[in-house]
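Appendix B, example 12.
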Amino acid sequence: MPPETFPGVSSRRELNKENTRSSIAAAALSLLRQRAGGSMTAEEIAEAAGVSRRTFFNYFPSVEAALNVPTEDFLNRALENLDALHDDLPVMEAAVRALQSLADPELLAPVAELFVLSGGNAQLGRLQLESWENCSTRLVEIVRERVSGDQRLPVAVFAHSVIGAGKAAFVDWAEDWGNDLSNTSMQALKQSLINALALLRDGFPTLRMQADSTARKA
């Protein structure tokens, strides 16, 4: 049996790949911080990560793709957490619980930082949007497996609403906290995400109350 077929060898290889990917992504984010959102090259990131330019492009097609890793990892983790929940749990409640499980500030902080910095980087902003769109596509697939019957439209509306709520939560957080990445700020971001999904789950109760009050006055 060739060495590469042994599980231990394969596991070490995958671990090394993941470590290299993480090192490149961390170096890219560090350079982005140092330059306050300014431009950088793949060569500069590779040098900071201690790898060759060729290795960089083996892992990422562009500088922006390396920078976007925290966002992709966060969204993937949220989807994995949702998919792991019991099928009997209502999908809206499952979505809220999936976000509640993402309490680690180390996971949220780089995503929040990139969200703020991407405002000055058009390409990174486009990649962030693409990550959210890809997440909505995967969410549709997960939810379809949890519901019965032909519910294509409700499932699509649900998935895109959840993703829209998530993006709105980041916008709301950034308006109050800006570049603050403290634990307190990350807890506020987590709560904003949960509150956004709760609004979807509960049907925007405060807006209904205001609408009812306006109707009575009329």
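The mean pLDDT is 85. The chain has two domains: 3-62, 68-205.
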